[in-house]
Amino acid sequence: LGAYAASRCDVAVLVGKRQAPPLKEGLLSQGFDETRLYVAEDLQDALRYVSGIAAPRIVLLENDLPDNY
Questions:
Q1: Cα 15 from Cα 18, distance rounded (Å)
Q2: Residue 22: left (phi > 0), alpha (psi -120 to 50), or beta?
Q3: Torsional class of 42: left (φ above 0), alpha (ψ -120 to 50), beta (otherwise)
Q4: N or C, which terminus of the chain has less Cβ within 10 Å?
Q5: Among the residues of 1-69, which ranges form H helices?
Q6: The model's pTM
Q7: DSSP labels, 57-68
């Protein structure tokens, strides 16, 4: 998913430090600019970060696992 997103996203916001590494690896493997990648602690952190971005075209806000799995 990260590799696919790399060519389609302006900014990637990955939610959850335990869930993020595979997506981050996929993004970076395709040359995604690490300065446009943010790994948020939780959903609230991700939303705060996204609200501070000036007019992004595409943002990947990814959280596919619950925090208490």
A1: 9
A2: alpha
A3: beta
A4: C
A5: 2-6, 20-29, 43-51
A6: 0.78
A7: S-EEEE--S-TT
